């Protein structure tokens, strides 16, 4: 796959992809014959994602390589369901690569969300901030090199590097848990710097699992929650609406979903 560039020096690259939409459907049909019908397979994969029948979805997966600032990796590693292997600064010298936010990303602290950002700062202030981050980072790397020159071991010299330095990891994760990661990290409450990685992964993943990822977007990421009263109101009208089949004759999967909704509520 072709890597997608993220932030100023980062990227995501899919090193290996396990399965595809057809394979997910085949896995779900372990007890029955393969349908051989792509439309039936697509409907099945959509239902699996929608109804959270997670184990067949876990048969899809990705191994990816990610270059990201250390502070992004710290958030990333909270996702316990994948396997990580990180570039070792004990084994190899740190890369002289660090993150400097774009001027428009130099935003004020939000006053109503303690974890959030507000409007972009004035461009002159933003340039000063970028300049300071740049100088601080260069200075830290020069200290790091001095400590190495003095004979200090790499595993301790790295202590002077700030968390905007880039690190590199390999991450292996199954499709179900990767969609969970996207749900949390593409959300507007997630920090911008991890959100842009999640968005890049989403695009690459959709190119390979178009049906599963579309079902995720439709039924999980952008789902709408209704109260029981609202659902009953709609369901009653749907069951009474004899025109429904005619209107949705070209969209059998939406028709069956709405009929199911009517029966359930
Ligand atoms: C917007 C945002 C703000 C955040 N702020 C903070 C913060 O201020 N401080 C902080 O420390 N963290 C913070 N986090 C991290 C957050 O608390 C989670 O640790 C992180 O998002 C991983 O979520 P997860 O546990 O669902 O994912 P994963 O670790 O990938 O787990 C996936 C799912 O597997 C199940 N699971 C995994 N491990 C276990 C287990 N041991 N026992 C039972 N079930 C398990 C759970 O159902 C879990 O949802 C934040 C995350 C987001 C998205």
Features:
single chain; about 260 residues; alpha+beta; Gyrase A, domain 2; 3 domains; 5-stranded antiparallel sheet; two-stranded antiparallel sheet; 7 strands; about 50% helix; about 15% strand; elongated; binds flavin-adenine dinucleotide
Oligomeric organization of the protein chains: single chain
Order of helices and strands: EEHHHEHEEEHHEHHHHHH
Rg over CA atoms, rounded to whole Å, is: 24 Å
Overall helicity = 40-55%
* Mean pLDDT over all positions: 92
Order of strands side by side in the largest beta sheet?
1-2-3-7-4
The fraction of residues in strands falls at: 15-25%
Give the termini distance in whole angstroms: 44 Å
Bound molecules: flavin-adenine dinucleotide
Low-confidence stretches: none
* Backbone structural class: alpha+beta
CATH topology of the largest domain: Gyrase A, domain 2
Quickly name the level 1 CATH class of the largest domain: Alpha Beta
CATH architecture of the largest domain: 2-Layer Sandwich
Q: Summarize the main sheet.
A: 5 strands, antiparallel
Taken from the alpha-carbon principal axes, the silhouette is: elongated
What do you see in this structure?
There is one protein chain. The protein is an alpha+beta fold. The chain has 3 domains: 159 residues, Gyrase A, domain 2 (2-Layer Sandwich), CATH 3.30.1360; 60 residues; 41 residues, no CATH class. It is 50% helix and 15% strand. The strands form 2 sheets. It has a 5-stranded antiparallel β-sheet with strand order 1-2-3-7-4. Helix 1 packs across helix 2, helix 7 runs antiparallel to helix 8 and helix 8 packs across helix 9. 23% of the residues are buried. It binds flavin-adenine dinucleotide. Flavin-adenine dinucleotide binds next to helix 7.
């Amino acid at each position: 796959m072709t890597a997608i560039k993220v932030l100023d020096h980062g990227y995501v690259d899919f090193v290996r992809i396990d399965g595809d939409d057809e394979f997910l459907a085949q896995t779900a049909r372990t007890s029955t014959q393969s349908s051989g019908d792509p439309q039936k397979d697509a409907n099945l994969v959509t239902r699996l994602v929608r109804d959270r029948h997670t184990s067949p979805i876990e048969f899809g997966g990705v191994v990816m390589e990610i270059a990201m600032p250390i502070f992004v990796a710290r958030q990333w590693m909270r996702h316990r369901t994948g396997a990580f292997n990180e570039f070792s600064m004990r084994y190899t010298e740190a890369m002289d690569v660090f993150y400097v936010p774009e001027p428009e990303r130099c935003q004020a602290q939000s006053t109503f969300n303690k974890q959030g950002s507000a409007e972009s700062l004035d461009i002159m202030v933003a340039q000063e901030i970028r300049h300071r981050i740049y100088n601080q980072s260069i200075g830290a790397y020069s200290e790091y090199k001095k400590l190495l020159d003095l004979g200090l071991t790499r595993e301790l010299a790295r202590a002077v590097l700030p968390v905007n330095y880039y690190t590199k990891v390999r991450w292996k994760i199954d499709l179900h848990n990767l969609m969970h990661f996207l749900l949390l990290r593409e959300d507007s409450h997630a920090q911008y710097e991890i959100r842009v990685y999640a968005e890049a992964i989403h695009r690459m993943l959709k190119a390979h699992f178009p049906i599963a990822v579309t079902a995720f977007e439709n039924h999980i990421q952008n789902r709408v929650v209704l109260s029981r009263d609202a659902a009953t109101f709609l369901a009653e009208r749907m069951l009474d609406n004899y025109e429904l089949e005619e209107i949705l004759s070209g969209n059998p999967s939406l028709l069956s979903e709405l009929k199911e909704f009517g029966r359930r509520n």
